[in-house]
Amino acid sequence: MSERALTEPVAPAAHRAPSPHADFTISQDWSAYSPEEHDIWRTLFQRQQSLLKGRACEEFLAGVRALGVVADAIPDFRRLNDTLNAATQWSIVAVPGLVPDAVFFEHLANRRFPSTCFIRRRDQLDYLQEPDIFHDIFGHVPMLMNPVFADYMQAYGQGGLKALGLGALHHLARLYWYTVEFGLIGTAEGLRIYGSGIVSSKGESVYCLEDPRPNRLGFDLMRVMRTRYRIDDFQVTYFAIRSFDELFEATRPDFTPYYAELAGMPDVEAAAILASDVVLHRGTLG
Ligand code: PHE
Ligand code: FE
After folding, report:
1. CA of 233 relative to ligand 2 center, distance in Å
2. Is the distance from CB of 186 to CB of 241 less than 8 angstroms?
3. Atom 10 of ligand 1, residue of closest alpha carbon
4. Which terminus of the chain is more exposed, N or C, with fewer CB under 10 A?
5. Whether the model pTM is above 0.85
6. How many CB atoms neighbour CB 175 within 10 A?
């Protein structure tokens, strides 16, 4: 056997079957999860639940409670959808992995969240370079129980379709990255997490709030859309919003003129701090 064959991750076959449909959806096939897979979910869930008390924002924690996702077992999308639909008219659709941008935006614009349904292996508990069901469901879906955030995600999908047509997707993708995936929010008790890439990561849940190294800056839409990001390590910069209403209002205007302006501006490096930035301190009000 070659060394490559020995070290190559064994792609779990179940729950990753390519979709026969144009919208990339598959069925979750809940009964096919093994006891080991349910156990991996339990480990991940319990770990994050205890880490996120006092670190995740109240909207996220309330979303977890209201959704009824628990440690016991990998959630069944049919059950989650009853609750999610009743709350915000969103639904979860299962997909085998990352889907093309246009497909992703089309789902979001119709209040459907495409979620993977495979779960990482036990040797990948701390880090996985692609989304799995723990990231997608535990990380993203609780915030979709919040009415303002639910509307923001739909608007993002609509904006994504437009950005694709305008060749401005790299700018809009940065907004997703620094809000939906890695966003912080300032509260009266200090900075809290709402980004799904953080809440589903053991290391980054602590690092983003407590480590002295990363920059924590006040959210500024144009600044965010100019800022490069890291995909292979903890972030070097986080942006904190003051409220979900503020985020939704800032992103409500038509971005077409913003993209025109951004086209003439240089990118900002991930680690940079500009004179115009509002630098936040740990534990202070955003
Ligand atoms: N208002 C944005 C546009 O016209 C769309 C958008 C909404 C983008 C919310 C992100 C978040 O492109
Ligand atoms: Fe994600």
Report:
1. 15
2. yes
3. 156
4. N
5. yes
6. 24
